[in-house]
Amino acid sequence: MTKNLTTGSPMGLIASFALPTLFGMLFQQLYNLVDTMIVGKLLGSAALAAVGSTGSINFLVIGFCMGVCNGFAIPVAQRLGANEPSKMRRYAANAARLSVLFALVLTAVTGLLCRQILTIMRTPADIFHNAYLYIFIIFMGIPATFLYNLLAGIIRSLGDSKTPVYFLALSSVLNIALDFALILGVRLGVAGAAIATVASQAVSGTACLFYMRKKYPILRMTKEERRLDLHSCGVLCSMGIPMGLQYSITAIGSIVLQSSVNALGSLYVAAVAAGGKVYQLLACPFDALGATMSTYCGQNVGACKLDRLGQGIRSCSVLGLGYSVIAFCAILRFAPQCALLFLDPQELDVILLTQLTTRYIVIQSAFFFPLSLVNIIRFSIQGMGFSTFAILSGVLEMAARTVVGLMLVPAFGYTAACFASPAAWVCADLFLVPASAFCIARLRRLYPNRSGETAADAQTVPLRAGAHR
Mean pLDDT, consecutive 10-residue segments, the chain of 469 residues? Predict the structure, then answer.
């Protein structure tokens, strides 16, 4: 049930691995889109703005959770590539312990502070109550977020990108059903949408856990492998925390930008919320390519196949460029129709909302190739074990969004807000492209006689996780 990414054509391996991952992410975005569509069409633009106004703070916290889980999976992939199954299982066991600790702390802290954060973000008074209800429930579901994302990350690190898709499909169907039941039936409003999201992810994660215990013999641990190991915890934290912080630091810029958009009024907040959902759906292939490169580079570093790192990055970038061109052409034709998916045609401001949302979508899609490079190169660097570089790229993204939010949006209005993320992607690429070359060169200097070895040769003297950082 595992897949070896250390032999064969990088282009073919990356494409075949990324495709199931893409389907999984599309399913994940599907239930996010359904939430937004139901809220926007059935509860109105004010409710849509309430949910949308929490997007940046949601990304700050949930993004940290997802980044930590992805980082925890990297040592697992490296030990699989190095053919060290016992160490791999030890990392998996200690990742579970750390995830429980992180989940409990984050749930308590965010639950206590979310009202204050929304106040600091200048959330409009007419949507504040619904915004608080929505994000509070999402934060209470952080343990479910950790459960699914950790298990899915470990499964992908083993080379299986298909199984997480099945459980995301289950989650999507359940989420849609619960949306209708809780919003239309029980009439819980935006709280119903949040409950549906948390409940569906919890079910998906629980099902994933039972499936893993039954179908993955390579993960069956001895009592010794299950013991707390401080060294393993240290390596896991050195991988996971920087990846989580990268998401959170990036989100700080998004929060500053969201605050500036909030000051423009709920109409603009709703336009950004609707446009953001379309963007997130279209950006799924970039997320899939990034997740693929994390596993690909992790396995190849573990197997000492250093020559394949640059080959994989170049092959993946070609795939990203091809999709970017296709997506931009499609958006030029269908952006207004995409915007109307989230808006009620009977609302008085629907024409202006459609125009604002269309402008946002078109500008974002014009910069999709820089976005693809951000995902591909950042996750490749993380898979190599240089997780701290993710923080530096996140700082650049944060700085770009902060400058736009504090200086350009007040001066130039909504259009400036539309260019904030593209500016962040370009700034990050200016750092990440040379950083990737540095990381590969660093590995070659540390292990000059091992690049290009066969898998059998490499497994006799495997790279030690985290040794090159």
Answer: 74 85 73 69 72 77 87 83 83 92 93 87 80 90 92 83 80 82 82 87 88 83 86 88 79 78 79 80 88 86 86 93 93 80 62 83 92 93 82 85 87 88 92 92 78 38 42
Closest by Cα among 164, 151, 145, 150 to 62: 145
Asked whether 85 and 302 are in contact (CB, 8 A), the reply is: no
| Closest C-alpha to 83, from 465, 455, 469 | 455
DSSP string over 188-247: -THHHHHHHHHHHHHHHHHHHHHHHHHH-GGGPPPHHHHS--HHHHHHHHHHHHHHHHHH
Neighbours of 215 (CB within 10 A): 12
Cα-Cα end-to-end distance for the chain: 31
CA distance 382 to 309: 12
DSSP 8-state code for residue 8 = S
Q: What is the largest CA-CA distance in the chain?
A: 70
Q: How far apart are CA 188 and CA 194, in angstroms?
A: 10
Distance, CA of 425 to chain centre? 15
Contact at 8 Å (CB) between 128 and 93? Answer: no
Dist CA 469 CA 467 (whole Å): 6
d(CA 39, CA 193): 8
Residue ranges of domains in the chain: 10-460
CA distance 135 to 142: 11
The answer to whether residues 380 and 309 touch, using CB atoms and an 8 Å cutoff, is yes
In which region does residue 159 sit, left (phi positive, over 0), alpha (psi from -120 to 50) or beta (all else)? left
Which of left, alpha, beta for 80 (phi over 0: left; psi -120 to 50: alpha)?
Answer: alpha
